[in-house]
Amino acid sequence: VYLNANPDVQEKIATRQIPDGLCHFLRQGYQEILDEKRQYAVDVSMPKISAIIKNQIPKRGKHLCLFAHFDPQGLIDPYVIVYLETLKSLGCDIVFISEWVQKRELNKLKRLCFRVIQRSRGGLDFGSWYIALKHLKTNLNPYEFVILANDSAYFPVRPADQLFKTMKNRKFDFWGITESLQQGSTSNPYHIQSYFMGFSNQARKTR
Q1: Three-state DSSP class for 76?
Q2: Cut 0.90: pTM above it
Q3: ∠ CA(28), CA(171), CA(182), 5° rounding?
Q4: CA distance 9 to 20
Q5: pLDDT tens digits, 3-36
Q6: From residue 97, how far is each of 22, 180, 181, 184 by CA, in Å?
Q7: What's the CA gap between 198 and 164, in Å, rounded?
Q8: What residues form DSSP beta bridges with 116?
Q9: Chain-centre distance of CA 128, in angstroms?
Q10: Are 91 and 62 in contact (CB under 8 A)?
Q11: Using an 8 Å Cβ cutoff, are 93 and 66 in contact?
């Protein structure tokens, strides 16, 4: 959808100025969208914020996690709570974004997430992360890593206490939990799965 809305990006890929659309989006497209100089998509409904809940949790973590959630019954399953608890224990301030959560379920998030954003449909997980960043307008510099995650996987499946320390020691600016060779729209199929991605302070400064 990003390429369909931005034929100039398609041209840069065709002339090998950039490898793919994600590269352009991360380097400059995202900021241009925020500055209203570029469209994210054409004929694709992007979400809008319907409600914001501010929980009384002080922001004191080393990392920021934007967590995209979806459940057709508006439930927060036990594995999601384990996921959030683990992120919290690893030093994450958490923003929870969902289309719909039942009112009684929201109590589960009070001790874990400093912000809960409920939104309209559209944009999938990337739409959730997009509106969270646009709403927060947070200075991200104090955070060592910004994590984009969703509830489509179980986490952790092994002890995760060294995860962020390992990524920092290896000096990775962009990383994920799973790499893939699934064939996509580009000639190079290698990519990082998008359900858990980390971006260092340095990566966020680089365009």
Answers
A1: coil
A2: no
A3: 65
A4: 8
A5: 989 999 999 999 999 999 988 998 899 888 878 8
A6: 22, 26, 29, 27
A7: 9
A8: 53, 96
A9: 7
A10: yes
A11: no
